[in-house]
């Protein structure tokens, strides 16, 4: 049986700039730069058909900008059936025209979706609304993704990185996005852990176009956080957050997930069938 890891931060050597490496000290986490061939070997050992690499711009952290996902795609081109790459735009740092150009550039390059990280970007997911900030660039991100059938992955929950502002991590702001963009595929990363798991679970239950990913939630605590996870098994995808702090690696994290008390049929849905529907590989 093969599986899919739908949320990783695999820092492949060819995509990482010297500036990104040098910024580690102010972020509080040193990027674990990886050789592509070693990643493929670990994937094979873990029976991972493919992995999704989240390569979003992060000016306030490592200095990565909108060209980062394009570089990551180029780095993965030798194995197009083993990688899916998610990009992103830092909407509160770009003009409307710059936002449009980067969305089109990343889409043409082959991204399988876009990532919004509110605590790292200092933006609320509903800041496009007039009663919030009226941020048209954010509205364009959602509209473009909806029009092109791409998911938007939105970080929910806290982040320990030094520049992070965790007040932006409340998943309740996704409710507006779900209502205003009813055909948009929204993936609620980390399911609000640890502060807002109840809110996240309720949104999964009541909003048809909201899914969740399990990345960065320790598998041993998964059913402690979400004892009713089996009820929403069709709306959840497995992810490890490998490459992030505290994650033991692609293979070990997956093995721990497969040892949880979920039914085997639920594990297959969450770690293969559901991700296969949401994220396409570079070979498409």
UniProtKB/TrEMBL annotation:
<keyword id="KW-0456">Lyase</keyword>
<dbReference type="GO" id="GO:0016787">
    <property type="term" value="F:hydrolase activity"/>
</dbReference>
<dbReference type="InterPro" id="IPR032465">
    <property type="entry name" value="ACMSD"/>
</dbReference>
<dbReference type="GO" id="GO:0016831">
    <property type="term" value="F:carboxy-lyase activity"/>
</dbReference>
<keyword id="KW-0378">Hydrolase</keyword>
<protein>
    <submittedName>
        <fullName>Putative TIM-barrel fold metal-dependent hydrolase</fullName>
    </submittedName>
</protein>
<dbReference type="InterPro" id="IPR032466">
    <property type="entry name" value="Metal_Hydrolase"/>
</dbReference>
<dbReference type="InterPro" id="IPR006680">
    <property type="entry name" value="Amidohydro-rel"/>
</dbReference>
<feature type="domain" description="Amidohydrolase-related">
    <location>
        <begin position="4"/>
        <end position="280"/>
    </location>
</feature>
<dbReference type="Pfam" id="PF04909">
    <property type="entry name" value="Amidohydro_2"/>
</dbReference>
């Amino acid at each position: 049986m093969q599986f899919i890891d739908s949320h990783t931060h695999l820092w492949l050597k060819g995509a990482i700039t010297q500036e990104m490496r040098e910024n580690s000290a102010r972020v509080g986490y040193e990027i674990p730069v990886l050789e592509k061939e070693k990643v493929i070997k670990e994937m094979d050992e873990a029976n991972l058909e493919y992995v999704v690499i989240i390569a979003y711009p992060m000016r306030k952290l490592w200095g990565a900008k909108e060209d980062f996902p394009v570089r990551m795609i180029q780095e993965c081109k030798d194995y197009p059936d083993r990688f899916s790459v998610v990009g992103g735009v830092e909407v509160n740092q770009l003009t409307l025209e710059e936002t449009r150009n980067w969305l089109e550039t990343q889409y043409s390059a082959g991204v399988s979706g876009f990532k919004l990280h509110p605590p790292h970007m200092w933006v609320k997911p509903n800041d496009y609304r007039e009663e919030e900030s009226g941020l048209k660039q954010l509205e364009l991100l959602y509209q473009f993704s909806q029009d092109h059938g791409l998911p938007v992955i939105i970080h929910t929950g806290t982040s320990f990185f030094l520049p992070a502002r965790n007040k932006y991590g409340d998943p309740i702001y996704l409710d507006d996005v779900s209502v205003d963009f009813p055909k948009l595929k929204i993936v609620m990363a980390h399911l609000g852990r640890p502060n807002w798991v109840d809110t996240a679970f309720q949104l999964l239950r009541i909003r048809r176009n909201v899914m969740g990913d399990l990345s960065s939630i320790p598998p041993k605590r998964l059913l402690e956080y979400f004892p009713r996870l089996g009820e929403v098994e069709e709306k959840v995808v497995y992810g490890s957050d490998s490459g992030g702090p505290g994650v033991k690696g692609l293979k070990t994290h997956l093995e721990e997930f497969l040892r949880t008390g979920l039914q085997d049929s639920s594990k297959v849905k969450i770690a293969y069938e559901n991700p296969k529907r949401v994220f396409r590989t570079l070979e498409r």
